[in-house]
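Summary: Need help interpreting a holo structure output

Steps to reproduce:
1. Submit the protein chain below together with the SMILES for NDP.
2. Request a joint structure prediction with the ligand placed.
3. Inspect the structure token block that comes back.

Expected: a single structure record containing both the chain and the bound molecule.
Actual: see attached output.

Input attached:
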Amino acid sequence: MKIALLGYGKMGKVIERIALERGHEIVLKKDEFNTYDGLSTADVAIDFSVPSAAVDNISASFNANVPVVSGTTGWLEHYDEMIALCNEKKGGFISSSNFSLGVNIFFGLNEYLAKIMNQFDSYKVTMEEIHHIHKLDAPSGTAISLAQGVIQNSDYSNWTLDEAKKGEIHIEAKRIGEVPGTHTVNYDSAIDSIEIKHTAHNREGFALGAVIAAEWLAGKQGIFTMKDVLNLQ
Ligand SMILES: NC(=O)C1=CN([C@@H]2O[C@H](COP(=O)(O)OP(=O)(O)OC[C@H]3O[C@@H](n4cnc5c(N)ncnc54)[C@H](OP(=O)(O)O)[C@@H]3O)[C@@H](O)[C@H]2O)C=CC1
Ligand SMILES: O=C(O)C1=N[C@H](C(=O)O)C[C@H](O)C1
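--- attached output ---
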């Protein structure tokens, strides 16, 4: 399979190695300064860039009739525009805040726990995410997805980085050293706490998941999620 890498930073480089190990060919490594030359020859594009470049990268892929897997976070305010463009161009699209198998299992656990905890007013939910100091966005896309998972399965209606008011989930975003990504969901009462936590040891899981998603998406038309790729309910 021919892959266009849109973004060739920390993630782009791990994705390149895993894609080559799985027998794929890289036809474009797009960074801030070069062009999209080669994009139209790709079977699939993988965007792991920066929040300000994601919309251009995803649009360029749809315009070149190349399905795109996007892992870039911090551009959610343009999500509906990209869905509209995908539909207009009859494109293929998977966007996820986190492509790792472990985090996608964790998403399911989080939703299940939220449903149970919604019956018990004495517990209050908070979240914490810890990432490396180079990260541009806060909170992480994964923390936003976790908050959405709680909101869709409980009476909570919003998340905030500030002090939480009633119905809000407080997210604390910490930036420490080279931490690849740690997410904790905590339910606290006066009596006890229940905590679930996912710790990434490195970037392998994110990158492998993105390559598996790209293999799955190539040749398909439509808007999909990692639940489709991993066959999770
Ligand atoms: N969904 C998931 O599973 C995961 C998502 N992420 C997200 O992926 C993104 C990338 O992360 P990471 O690799 O660590 O970040 P890096 O900062 O290491 O890499 C970003 C890359 O994007 C490039 N870039 C800048 N402008 C453009 C542009 N206009 N077109 C194409 N590329 C451009 C940069 O190029 P240059 O070097 O020239 O500046 C750089 O190579 C982040 O949003 C992060 O949150 C990260 C891990 C997992
Ligand atoms: O920037 C990162 O590194 C990561 N970003 C994603 C996010 O914002 O959730 C996923 C992962 O946690 C690493």
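--- end attachment ---

Reviewer comment: Helices lie at 10-21, 51-63, 79-89, 101-117, 141-151, 204-217, 226-230. The radius of gyration is 18 Å.
Status: needs-info
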